[in-house]
Amino acid sequence: MLYPLTFETIFKDKIWGGQKINTILGKDFSPLPNCGETWEVSDVEGNVSIVKEGVLQGKSLRELVEQYKGELVGNHVYDTYGNRFPLLIKFIDANDDLSIQVHPNDELAAKRKSGFGKTEMWYIMQADEGAKLNSGFNQEVTKDEYVKAVADNTIQDILNIEPAKPGDVFFLPAGRVHYIGKGLLLAEIQQTSDTTYRIYDFDRVDATTGQKRELHTELAVDAIDYHHYDHYKTQYEKKLNESVNTVASDYFVTNVLNFDEEVEHDYTHIDSFVILICVDGSLTIETKGGYSTPLKMGQCALIPASVDIVTLVPDGSMTVLETYVP
């Protein structure tokens, strides 16, 4: 019988990373000097998640998908993605601005033989005073205007910059130019892909190599959505003890659950696994068979598709992201 699965954290040292993974999320990433990302649920080649607890401890996520198929991920999901788990869940600590970048869509990624495209979303968990991020352009831009802005180093003048605070949600479809700004700690839900085209890196030099990081200027050009949009931040109404939908895309649906009382969730109607990501407070997940899985801020659990009913028991109050494949 499958049960809620938790995985060993994969820590990523980044030139822009900091200490909040440890000081706020309580994760010990030593001996790394700092940590920019943790990968919590991953099927990216070379970074496949390993089950942390229970009778399946030590098994890889890929092994589980191959063994349990639709029982784990849902029949529809398995028919669509096969043995490849479709989502990647991260926590990101930006102690400095990340590079300005863009991700390809599925069509372009396939053409370039780089797997899936990368549509993603961010949920802001903590923000230093004045923290900002970039999502999209602040005006309509042509491809030629973009190329010129990159060449003459005025790319930042055409970027849409947004202030960010805890609880903010940003949905970033493939093709949208973006960067996470200094002072932000966030949860990221994305397609299983590690393909990033770096446009500008603020002229940083790697402390180890003494070199600037590689840019992907030409690769980015055909990946970018050059349109300007009226709204880049996802608008949603925060409600207590209700499930609130924030993102509904072809790749994942994400709801925000802010509860201070016990709630039972019936997933019978969802032909997919569900991932619960605790972004504030703590709770216990209870399921049939006597399984009890504690989660605190900065932890995730994968609910297999065969588990229909879960009971969420908050410790005081909690905020959880609930995400699955539609």
UniProtKB/TrEMBL annotation:
Zn(2+) binds at residues 103, 120, 178. GO terms for biological process: carbohydrate metabolic process. The keyword Transcription regulation does not apply. The keyword Thylakoid does not apply. The active site is at residue 198. It comes from the Bacteria. CDD domains: cupin_PMI_type_I_N_bac. Binds 1 zinc ion per subunit. Residues 8-111 form the Phosphomannose isomerase type I catalytic domain. Its cofactor is Zn(2+). This is Phosphohexomutase. It comes from Spirosoma aureum. The lineage of its organism: Bacteria, Pseudomonadati, Bacteroidota, Cytophagia, Cytophagales.
